[in-house]
Specification:
The complex is a heteropentamer of chains A (323), B (286), C (240), D (370) and E (241).
Chain A (H helix, E strand, L loop, with lengths): L1 H19 L5 H25 L8 H18 L3 H23 L4 H21 L1 H4 L5 E2 L16 H23 L1 H11 L1 H6 L4 H27 L1 E2 L1 H4 L2 H15 L6 H20 L6 H16 L5 H16 L1
Antiparallel strand pairs in A: 1-2
Helix pairs in contact in A: 1-7, 2-7, 2-10, 2-12, 2-13, 3-4, 3-5, 3-10, 4-10, 7-8, 7-10, 12-13, 13-14
Chain D lengths: L2 E7 L6 H20 L11 E7 L4 H15 L3 E4 L3 H14 L3 E3 L5 H4 L5 E3 L4 H18 L6 E7 L2 H16 L3 E8 L7 H10 L3 E5 L2 H13 L7 E3 L6 H7 L7 E4 L7 H11 L5 H20 L4 H8 L3 E3 L10 E3 L12 E6 L2 E6 L13
Chain E lengths: L1 E12 L2 E12 L3 E5 L6 H8 L7 E6 L2 E2 L5 H7 L1 E3 L12 H9 L5 H15 L14 H14 L4 E5 L7 H16 L3 E5 L3 H7 L2 E6 L2 E6 L1 H5 L2 H8 L2 H5 L1
Parallel strand pairs in E: 3-8, 3-9, 6-7, 7-8
Antiparallel strand pairs in E: 1-2, 1-4, 4-5, 9-10
Helix pairs in contact in E: 3-4, 3-5, 4-5
Classes of the chains: A mainly alpha (323), B mainly alpha (286), C alpha/beta (240), D alpha/beta (370), E alpha/beta (241).
The complex binds adenosine-5'-triphosphate (2 copies) and magnesium ion (2 copies).
One adenosine-5'-triphosphate sits at the interface of chains C and E.
Chain lengths: 323, 286, 240, 370, 241
């Protein structure tokens, strides 16, 4: 019961926060991207945290989503809302296609094969100029603001859409985690052979999660495209700034937990911005350097993620209560 | 003829891919972590060798041992001071520690050395041997020779020496290795330092034909991963086979497809090889 | 070192994992050339005693001395250099190495010795099965074969003190017989042995003295004959 | 009250070198103006540069732009060298009506009908066209005839756009394109390209690439004893490191450039004095951009973005750093493109870049040899 | 009624014939012991039965259904599962979750949890239900293996040395458990090197040697078979009689 109250309180704060920020300003943009990256990391968490398949290729699905909805608007004037589902569908298919050859791969083999898949998608987007505009990238057309056209003059609605998306994917994550599927995924993660022998269809479960994760990631790609307005293959299919970053966010926060990715994003995105703000006018590379140092420090401090700060606080709290 | 030329070219660059990747596979093989910062040590190796060339007048290939030594020292510190602290943490924490390291090294060298693109001029930079209608680039050939020698030496060392044996034992079961009297912490340090040292060595060797700047690692990092995974993670022989295979696949693909698709073809082949042999070309099948 | 000084001396040993303490004030002594066994129920902490000697337990307090050396200041990789070999519970073979290489590693701290191949020959005589499988990767061996590797590996060191944690685990009865004969032989050549064995009857058969461990405390100690006659021991551990 | 001007450049990552060059150019001009008493029309207000790192990601560039606009209230933004970054910034500046001055030359920049963007140099397609046309003219002037060429370019926005210009010009001039290959950015081995080049039988090759590939290409060509001239497409061919890397092999290499420092040595020498290397074109163009911007502020007598935008559009800017541009002045058309700028052909001569074409601005005679 | 029928199972590993032509059948409700020297192929045989290893030839019928070539999870659903000799628990999960996960084969999460607690109780591990499986001692883990396999609700249960490293008293508890499982209608195949346990609980014993079935009979027949004594038992039988 207490839990629920806490959760509702957090959501309420999150819902009010955007209103306090200037609707055309900088911080609301940062907040929007923070929420978006939290959602992306949460989706990654389904496969990376529950199934322990460290995917480093989620940019592939993300980019598919961004491109699908944007191309549909540009070429056919179809609303990004519909494009989002079209992108999700294609993202799911892509997840299936990559899941089949990588199914048997374990651990780092899987990670690096998916990394390659992300790169494959990037090259395709770069080469298929007639469809994607090639290396030059695509701009989301500016249409008169309306909810139906997913177009707003200000960033505020985008922030709310990102918040809702985050809540939805978090609920999905938590539902999977607690369900039979969650237990099966943990079993597969720790010992696939034993999992099979006690009756878990490892292939099926892996495919299911891969597809769920692919669909959701692609749908978030649409949200991103609508906020960022312009993107090119290097942006949305980027290993460093999408694939590895979402994994990093989830891991820094606490992989396999529902709160982890949110904590991770709340930390990484604003800190990165802050470093850029504070140090990037100085010597070139300084802001990134400091960011890297902070990253290392945090991992050394909490190798199992920020979430463990709560765990130890809780432990101290309950110890006090007991004594 | 162009086919033969492509094979030769592919093997030559492949040998170099092999040596820069051997270090990565060694680090993985012993510590079980994928070192994302590995390519940064390539950059360090290139810088060391560049400075040796610019200020001491050394040929980059001659300076390669110096690059090795510097990277070895840095690797020793990094492993002992940073990575050792998270050895008990989940392996993702270790991996992402190396991501942090990547950012720090790249931007640190941007601060330290500036953003200029630096390259060396050597007496042989435009030399080549001709064999009938075939060309064999001299800088590539030198790099290839150094790489292969280095790879073979390491392979032999790991196979036959007590040291190599101890290193492999540590990789497979650190607890039991300690019971055998092996100082596993030391092994990790040496493995990491040796691994990044070798990559730096490779960096020096390719300097005669590659430009160095702080971001140069980014051009090689995915290639290095492809090489070690294709060959079989953790296998030194695998890195050699993987490197040669990647070189040849790239060279051959450019005969039949636009060069723009070079990496696409490479990655598709890569994913398919893994689908058939999940443990890589040379990895043990278990 | 005078003869009256124990080879291994454990005093007031507390040990545990994380917050859980498993051993509470263990006192145990062994003289050179002794063959001692520790018996006790599951989770009593038998393995933990051996692991504490090998410095593999994170939290240890108390005195641990071996042949005049204070073990508590040593790292675990130093232990074999003192002449202690440990066959751990659960085998822990190097799975991606050949049987031969596994055995060789047992003599890692004695790697400069000249007689390694004759030592290995001795292991093969004890476990002929291993000779047949010498080129196989240890990870693909059967359970019992792996146990043979684990025991053989420890014997390669020709230790002063041999710590055996359930060495007969998963071995066929005939092999167990042969192995215990071999332990007796090794013991008779002067090696001291500390044995943890669930097959209590067998343990008391081969060892000269024993300790009974109950929930992390020494409940009883005595010669094998005494323990064998003790009705409590018979009821609790021999099921008679 | 000082006038805040945003400078967004890639200061880390692969393009850091160019971002830093650009920033150097801008700082030079800002310091000069401030030293000379600031902006007169605003009572000697000083220029306050707000520099930010765009990293290499367009999204970051956009966020940074948003920050400079709302947090620092900048009058205008200069940036961001790479076209993709500039486009991402322009999406923000356009919505907030802040002028953006750039030297990125992708055709899209002024091709989208944006009202607040100003492009200081000719478009990429024009650059590509000039690369070919000038070459033909130079060859002809020395009695050589070209009817078969090879194009190779990195598959980035810059490479692709410029190659398109080359291609169109070749078609118009009825020249056979024997090879037309894109290659991935960050290629580590160019041997396959050169193998293809050798087989193509082209009489001149037009590589469009950054430095690393440029050096690789030229060296591999020499190794394979290919002696046809290479005419570079700016970027990697017109920076000091090119010559440092190749040494004697750089001599007489031609390259197109949007501008060159020898057109106004009195100005650009100040750069060399301060930073120790010749004023590379991106530094020069960004310097011009800032000068033009300040002129517009003077003219508008206001540091308000809307006023500055109006002042920028339509007027012709002369004097100051605009002298360093071909055309000797800057004038933006309705799309924001500087209509006066034409590219130049530069040639490496003894560690310096000498403008050798068009004839009216040339400082030396083109040498046609490989 | 025959529940398990094995015909002509063979399997090679490189140059080693790990199983050759193993044939026998088991009626429902028997406890069958499987013994043999180390490396005789017992574990390999179990792995073949549950589908982890594909036999080179031969047929396996479980309750009338052919299971050769089926995936292990299918075979588990059909009612046959095994424990792992080298212990293959989900080490980072709690003991309860280990067992619960197996219960999901036939139940939803809540029912599976109840079932799991019952199974843990039966193996005497209820008190450690919330410990991480990886922190248990080796023999405890073997018992979690047993509880987990049990929780899949099997018709045929293959136990690979679950009594290893137990002292005689503890062993007795497991033996009682195995008998009670038989009384519940489960058919059991038991691999164990403890002769006393095998001889007491098994209705019938199969002896495997070099991958071949060497003997098949009652405990008395097997114990007195000179070939078996020679290959496997050694002198030890006297000690255990
Ligand atoms: N790594 C560990 N982390 C936490 N607890 C542990 C760990 N290893 C052992 N334990 C606990 O310590 C206690 C004693 O274990 P130990 O292995 O010493 O027992 P044992 O007497 O050898 O029993 P067994 O016959 O089961 O091997 C057990 O309760 C066990 O669960
Ligand atoms: N994957 C494999 N590759 C090669 N040989 C194998 C493989 N798996 C098992 N073997 C060999 O097959 C033989 C049978 O092994 P198995 O594990 O079935 O024996 P077991 O009867 O269970 O023995 P134990 O009683 O010691 O557990 C052994 O000699 C083993 O070395
Ligand atoms: Mg024990
Ligand atoms: Mg077995």
């Amino acid at each position: 019961m207490k839990r629920w109250i806490a959760i509702l309180a957090v959501i309420a704060i999150a819902a009010v926060l955007p209103l306090l920020l200037s609707p055309t300003g900088y911080w609301i943009r940062v907040l929007t991207f923070t929420l978006l990256f939290a959602a992306m990391a949460q989706v990654w968490n389904i496969i990376g945290g529950l199934a322990n398949q460290t995917s480093l290729g989620h940019a592939a699905f993300f980019g598919i989503g961004a491109y699908t909805s944007t191309i549909l608007v540009l070429k056919f004037g179809i609303s990004p809302w519909i494009g989002m589902f079209a992108g999700g569908f294609l993202g799911g298919i892509a997840a299936l296609i990559i899941a089949v050859p990588t199914m048997r791969l374990q651990g780092h083999y899987f990670a690096l094969a998916t990394l390659a898949f992300g790169e494959v998608m990037r090259v395709i987007a770069n080469v298929w100029t007639s469809l994607t505009g090639g290396p030059v990238g695509l701009s989301v057309p500016f249409v008169p603001p309306s909810i139906a056209a997913y177009s707003f003059k200000q960033l505020l609605p985008h922030a709310y859409i990102a918040l809702i998306a985050l809540i939805i994917v978090t609920v999905i994550f938590e539902a999977i985690r607690r369900s039979a599927m969650g237990y099966r995924l943990r079993a597969i993660k720790e010992n696939p052979a034993a999992a099979e022998v006690i009756g878990i269809d490892t292939t099926k479960v892996k495919l299911q999660t891969a597809v769920i994760s692919g669909v959701l990631m692609a749908m978030l790609g649409t949200l991103y495209a609508q906020v960022a307005v312009f993107f090119d293959p290097d942006t949305v299919f980027s290993a460093a700034s999408i694939s590895i970053r979402v994994a990093l966010i989830a891991i820094l926060g606490g992989v396999g937990t529902a709160i982890g990715p949110i904590l991770g994003a709340l930390f990484i995105i604003p800190v990165e911005e802050l470093m850029n703000d504070l140090f990037s006018s100085g010597a070139a590379g300084l802001s990134q350097l400091i960011f890297g140092v902070i990253l290392i420090a945090v991992i050394l401090w909490r190798p199992r993620g920020f979430i463990t700060v709560f765990d130890s606080l809780m432990a101290r709290f309950s110890n006090k209560a007991r004594s | 003829m162009s086919f033969l030329q492509a094979i030769i070219d592919g093997l030559l660059v492949g040998g170099v891919y092999a040596v820069i990747s051997i270090g990565l596979t060694l680090v993985y093989g012993v510590m079980g972590i994928v070192n994302f910062a590995q390519a940064e040590f390539l950059m360090i190796g290139m810088f060391v060798s560049w400075f040796a060339w610019a200020y001491l007048g050394l040929d980059p290939v001659v300076a390669a041992p110096l690059s090795f030594a510097v990277a070895f020292g840095i690797g020793w510190l990094v492993q002992g001071q940073l990575i050792a602290r998270v050895l008990k943490a989940p392996s993702v924490a270790q991996i992402f520690l190396t991501v942090g390291l990547l950012i720090v090294i790249e931007n640190g060298s941007l601060l330290l050395f500036g953003s200029q693109f630096r390259s060396v001029t050597t007496s042989y930079q435009t030399m080549s041997l001709s064999l009938g209608a075939l060309f064999i680039s001299v800088p590539y050939l030198i790099a290839f020779g150094m790489s292969l020698a280095c790879g073979l030496a390491l392979w032999w060392f790991m196979r036959t020496s007590w040291f190599g044996r101890a290193m492999r034992a540590t990789a497979q079961n650190p607890m039991a290795a300690q019971l055998m009297g092996i100082d596993t912490a030391l092994m990790y340090k040496i493995a990491f330092a040796l691994g990044v040292g070798l990559t730096a060595f490779g960096g020096a060797v390719i300097l005669p034909y590659v430009t160095v700047f702080p971001g140069v690692g980014g051009q090689f990092v995915v290639l290095m991963f492809t090489v070690v995974v294709l060959g079989g993670l953790g296998s030194v022989a695998g890195a050699v086979v993987g490197g040669l295979a990647v070189g040849v696949i790239q060279a051959l693909s450019s005969l039949f497809f636009p060069i723009q698709l070079q990496n696409l073809i490479l990655f598709i082949v890569f994913i398919f090889v893994l689908a058939v042999r999940p443990q890589g070309l040379v990895g043990a099948s278990r | 070192m005078s003869a009256s000084q124990p080879l291994l001396e454990i005093k007031g040993l507390n040990a545990g994992y994380g917050e859980i303490e498993v051993l509470h004030g263990i006192d145990l002594q062994m003289f050179e050339g002794e063959f001692v066994c520790i018996i006790g129920a599951n989770t009593a902490g038998k393995s933990t005693i051996l692991r504490a000697i090998s410095r593999l337990v994170p939290h240890v307090t108390g005195t641990l001395r071996f042949a005049g050396n204070d073990l508590s200041s040593r790292a675990s990789h130093d232990i074999p250099t003192l002449g202690i070999a440990h066959v751990p519970e659960g085998r822990h073979v190097f799975s991606d190495m050949m049987v031969e290489e596994n055995l060789m590693l047992g003599a890692f701290t004695a790697r400069h010795a000249k007689d390694l191949s004759s030592r290995m020959e001795g292991i093969f005589e004890l476990f002929p099965r291993l000779r047949e499988r010498r080129g196989q990767l240890a990870g693909t061996l059967s359970g019992g074969e792996q146990q043979m590797v684990a025991v053989g590996r420890a014997l390669m060191l020709q230790p002063k003190l041999l710590l055996l944690d359930e060495p007969s685990h998963g071995l066929a009865p005939k092999v167990v017989e042969e192995m215990h004969d071999a332990f007796t032989k090794i013991h008779s050549r002067g090696t001291s042995i500390l044995l943890v064995e669930q097959n209590v009857g067998l343990a008391l058969d081969v060892a000269t003295r024993g300790y009974v461990l109950e929930s992390g405390r020494i409940a009883l100690q005595g010669t094998s004959a005494e323990l064998n006659e003790n009705p409590a021991v018979r009821a609790a551990y021999l099921g008679i | 009250k000082p006038v805040n001007i945003g400078v967004i450049m890639p200061l880390s990552g692969a393009n850091a070198q160019f971002g830093i060059n650009s920033r150097n150019g801008i700082e030079l001009v800002a310091d000069e103006i401030n030293a000379a008493g600031g902006i007169k029309a605003l009572g000697g207000a000083k220029i306050n540069l707000i520099v930010a790192d765009a990293t290499s990601t367009p999204t970051t560039a956009g966020t940074v732009a948003q920050r400079l606009i709302t947090q620092n209230e900048v009058t205008a933004i200069l940036g961001a060298f790479a076209s993709s970054l500039t486009i991402a910034i322009s999406e923000v500046t356009e919505r907030r009506d802040i002028p953006l001055l750039t030297m990125s030359f992708a055709d899209q920049i002024t091709g989208r009908g944006f009202k607040n963007i100003f492009q200081i140099v000719a478009k990429a397609s024009a650059l590509g066209k000039a690369q070919l046309d000038y070459t033909l003219a130079i060859a002809q002037a020395s009695g050589a005839k070209i009817d078969k060429i090879a194009i190779m370019y990195e598959d980035t926005a810059y490479g692709t756009a410029q190659a398109a210009g080359l291609r169109a010009a070749a078609k118009a001039a009825n020249i056979d394109i024997a090879m037309d290959d894109a290659y991935p950015l960050g290629i580590t081995d160019t041997t396959p390209l050169i193998n293809k080049l050798r087989a193509s039988g082209a009489q001149a090759v037009f590589p469009v690439s950054y430095l690393n590939d440029s050096l690789l290409l030229i060296r591999t060509m020499r190794q394979q004893r290919i002696t046809i001239p290479a005419i570079g497409g700016a970027a990697g061919y017109v920076i000091p490191d090119f010559e440092k890397g190749l040494g004697e092999f750089a001599e007489n290499v031609l390259s197109i450039a949007p501008a060159n420092y020898d057109l106004a040595p009195d100005l650009t020498e100040r750069f060399r004095k301060r930073f120790g290397y010749f004023m590379v074109h991106e530094a020069l163009e960004h310097a011009v951009a800032l000068d033009v911007l300040v002129q517009a502020i003077e003219k508008a007598k206001s540091a308000k973005a809307e006023d500055v935008t109006i002042a920028l559009r339509g007027a012709k800017f002369t004097g100051g750093w605009t002298k360093a541009m071909t055309g000797g002045a800057v004038e933006f058309d309705s799309t924001g493109l500087n209509t006066l700028s034409v590219p130049v052909m530069a040639q490496w001569r003894n560690k310096e870049l000498v403008t050798v074409w068009p004839k009216d601005v040339a400082k030396g005679t083109a040498v046609w040899k490989s | 009624m025959t529940i398990l029928d094995v015909r002509g199972i063979s399997r090679r590993f490189g140059g080693l014939q790990a199983l050759s032509d193993v044939t026998f059948s088991v009626p429902k409700g028997q406890i069958v012991g499987l013994i043999g020297p180390n490396g005789a192929g017992k574990t390999t045989f179990f792995s073949t039965l549950v589908g982890l290893i594909r036999p080179d030839s031969g047929s396996i019928q479980l309750d009338g259904t052919s299971v050769v070539g089926q995936k292990p999870h299918k075979i588990a659903a059909l009612g046959m599962t095994k424990t792992f000799q080298n212990v293959a628990l989900f080490a980072e999960s709690s003991v309860l979750d280990n067992v619960l996960t197996a219960g999901l084969l036939r139940h939803d999460v809540e029912t599976a949890r109840k079932e799991a607690l019952i199974c843990l109780d039966r193996v005497g591990l209820k008190s450690v239900a919330h410990k991480l499986a990886g922190n248990l001692s080796f023999p405890e883990r073997a018992r979690v293996e047993l509880a987990r396999a049990l929780c899949t609700g099997p018709k045929v249960l293959l136990l690979d040395e679950v009594m290893a490293a137990l002292n005689p008293v503890e062993m007795q508890e497991i033996m009682d458990l195995i008998r009670s499982l038989r009384d519940d209608g489960i058919t059991l195949l038991v691999v164990e090197h403890h002769m006393r346990a095998i001889m007491t609980i098994c209705d019938r014993i199969l002896v495997l040697n070099f991958g071949r079935l060497l003997a098949d009979g009652t405990p008395e027949q097997v114990a007195n078979d000179p070939v078996v004594v020679e290959a496997y038992l050694g002198r030890s039988m006297e000690a255990h009689k």
